[in-house]
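hey can u run this one w/ fe (ii) ion bound, need the structure tokens asap thx
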Amino acid sequence: MPHVAEIAPDIYRICVFYPELNLQFNHFLVKDEEPLLFHTGLRRMFPEVREGVAKVLDPAHLRWISWSHFESDECGSLNEWLTIAPHAQPACGMVGALVNVNDFSSREARILAPQDVLTTGKYRFRYYNTPQLPHGWDAGVMFEEIERVRKSLTTIQASPLANYVPYTHNTGRILEGLASLKPKTLATMHGSSFCGDCREALLDLATVMKEVLDKPSYNFAEVQQAVGP
Ligand SMILES: [Fe+2]
Ligand SMILES: [Fe+2]
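ok here u go:
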């Protein structure tokens, strides 16, 4: 059962919680002249996310489908959405389109160059590419310039997966750049949406990521020992 909440005027968070993973997956729906769905969810999650979208608008009226990076939870059910929404078009960065999307997708993507604006009607979403943040060289976020909502980094959780999150020379400066936009709301994929001092929250995230991730975490000898001869 999806949980639907309005996090900004006509911007909805559709949350599906998987208790077995103790993890929430968030999909963001913009109700506007050209409705936008940001994150499709996994293929097996499609009925639930569709149910959530249908509480706000007719899913067949979706015009844009976008996501932060090419993975099953972010865009696995893209083709299911394109089937039920005949006017919907994927929108993503150039790397995502060239490497995965224009082969995977049943409809060609609109390629968003850095700082391109996707207008849905009353709202304007500016695209920022964020390579390797949170992960994936095709990663990017959208910043809604009217209500100042930014989508969507994941949260860094204390989980075994934390060691798989990359930390690059650009991680800090990307987060500082996003902080300079002074968002009012952060629409996060695997955590709560945050309303408050988002500039400070992003700068704090930069600090924590540096502390936690900016050090070697891979030991080949240990891996070899675990696997055995
Ligand atoms: Fe991911
Ligand atoms: Fe994810």
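The chain has one domain: 3-227. anyway lmk if its weird
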